[in-house]
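Fold this sequence, please.
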Amino acid sequence: MIATLKFTTLLLAVVVCRATQDYGYKDVEEPTLGDSQYGSLWPLPQKVQMSTVAFKLSGVSFQIVDAKESSSGASCSLLQNAYRRYDEYIFPISRMQGQNKKKAFASVSELQVWITSADSECDNYPSVTSDESYELSVDSPVAVLKAPKVWGALRGLETFSQLVYEDEYGAKSINRTEIQDFPRFTHRGLLLDSSRHFLPIKVILANLEAMAWNKFNVFHWHIVDDPSFPYMSRTFPQLSQQGAYHPYTHVYTPSDVKMIIEFARLRGIRVVSEFDTPGHTQSWGKGQKDLLTPCYSGASPSGSFGPVNPILNTTYDFMAMFFKEVSTVFPDAYIHLGGDEVDFSCWKSNPDIQKFMAQQGFGTDYSKLESFYIQRLLDIVTTTNKGYMIWQEVIDNGVKLKSNTVVHVWMGNKFEEELQKVTEAGFTTILSAPWYLDYISYGQDWQKYYKVEPLSFNGTDAQKKLVVGGEACLWGEYVDATNLTPRLWYAADKPKCKKKNLRRYLSSPSILHCTVCNVRCFPPIPRPRASAVGERLWSDKDVKDTNDAYSRLIQHRCRMVQRGIPAEPLFTGYCAHEYKGV
């Protein structure tokens, strides 16, 4: 795993943000909002008490250790890996250059991590019921992080690292602090699409790392779709051989999938795979004969294919074998079964489908045929002892669902009405409708994501308890390895002046002069976008001061840059440490 961590570090761009001692921008003209009393904490913990009393930390003597009372110890590789990772985050330069053996004064010498429950869950996979709560007490000479389970310890380690700041000489300090923290929602996800454009493993790992920094805990892996089938199945290898963009270079092997799942586990992140049917399956049909419905033009086949063919027994034989494999490869308790955007036109054109509809008494209501397919698929998945998630169209189309189905709301601006309807029917729900990050806009677009209140719909307290969280989604039509990370975590302000009118100050290259406006002009500043969703899903519902969030978010963005998440270039300029490739 150490090699994996080094590999991930290597692949990320090392970009240094020109910042003040607490990660803020020096030369960028922005509204004067003042420093937040919470420094650079993101997402904001539930309860924070910070003192002005400051303690020094030394890279020579400081260490993260297991508390004597802790139920976990040296054998817990999850925590030991996290200790090393966060030690390097806090002291990046001293660790890279080698520690100076000269003894340095430090008033906080240790962070002791105390897992309080008998079962630390160190060797488990995170689950929908994982306890991520923790308490953090920073004092001299020892700081203490207490958590019932390792998942809370991981979140607390991130918070501790965010409390550390440095002066202009690089000396590290931390203030006396008391924190009690837990997530508001249990499901805080990020969807990435690896079908429309193949995502190299290194890009996925890099974003899992960034997810942990923002306390996301679910990687929703939309792994296959119409354009390509990059998942390499052991049971049906022809699916990726025929359906992937390339059968060797653009696939995820079983060992690749295993590595991604383990990398995520070590950061307290679940990996929920999505295999969307009966629509979005064009790539499936390339490797599996007779799986898709032949479309007709009049009385003759048109040569094209539609959704999965729901009237053949061979379809369900295939699905049973395929999902049996998927259930063993992906250890999470849930599989996302999709079910969205099913085009009925091909079914309507097919004479065999028409005959089947008449035999079943479905008339011309093809949503009943969809329901027939979905119900049989749910029965198949149930035999694997997995739970399942589906997109909202399934319930919108009147499909009869099992009571433990999780409904994923994603459509339109009236998501409050959909949440009300779905929860009124008694279904557990997750929300994505207001958090589609592939919709690009200029300016302070992070604020629209930040201001969303997931429980703003009309409903009883019991209904609102059924909303277990949400996901930010980044679909892959216009996203690949070159721009996924910047687009996910950054959105640029629109320049106030036209590029052709700008001239650079020789004395300060980062500041520009507009020859038309006769004013100083500044390059646009990137805004972390997914981070805004992260705080909305973690922090208390009353945390909604955008001025305070702005102050913390600027500093948090620079911390992510310092740790290696690359920001795309926004204007002519340079970085002190340029990207050197991988």
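The mean pLDDT is 85. The longest strand covers residues 47-57.
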